[in-house]
Amino acid sequence: MEKQLKQFLKFLENDKKASNNTIQSYKRDLEQYKNYLKNHNLKYNKVKEKEIKEYLDYLVKEENKKASTISRMIASIRSFYQYEIKNKKITTNPIENLQSPKVEKKVPCILTTEEVDLLLKQPTNVDLKGIRDKAMLEFAYATGMRVTEIISLDVEDVNLEQGYVVCKSKNKAREIPLGRMALESVKEYLNKSREILVKSDKETALFVNINGKRLTRQGFWKIIKYYQEQAHIDKDITPHTLRHSFATHLLQNGADLKSIQTMLGHSDISSTQVYMKFQNDGLNNVYKKAHPRA
Q: 86, 103, 128: which is the final residue of a domain?
């Protein structure tokens, strides 16, 4: 299975143009599956649905895997077998009829506007790192972009004159407006911080670390956590929390769902509709305050 797995991962990279995070996720799931088969003297091309069910039961009972993880693993294994069928390595997909467990959609963690203000006030612009961090946090909240999308940006992707950023993701591009405060912070960062941090003219990344190299996901995460502690906010804030807050605050202030879907880059509007819950809460509060019979 080792050879087939390498070929499948190459297929994801070269043909499907999958992101590195997606490829690594498939690799982890399928490596674990491969090791289980090896430990139980099972051949990947001879395994039956019953034996795969036993593997999934093992993951739940012995590894304490959650339903969301099991669903992802089923999807990874199914995709691998579909690839093998397409390449005529096997004739039937042993996992084809296996149902994924129902996964409850988690309500995303949302910051209030007051908490966002408090968080964004934490970085000071007294040094190169503070100027960068201020710009980065303002940018993340202003655009609602995923952390992978933000760290993948190049300087040329930001149009400072027109006030928007071009986000390229999965062979698609979308334009997202930049608010006044984000624009001011990014301009200050480019003029006073980035040009000093960057050591090479060949570096194209918009946001760089203190060594002048492209910022990583881990670096972004650590920065968020640091300022969460500085702000004494009890909620578990991640880079994605700013994305959720961006969408919710837009919706609560009258933006339409379709526009928010476009800015977030959701292919399916059902992914955006999760934020309707928070709009309804806001409407209930308005109703209770304004209606004479409430």
A: 86
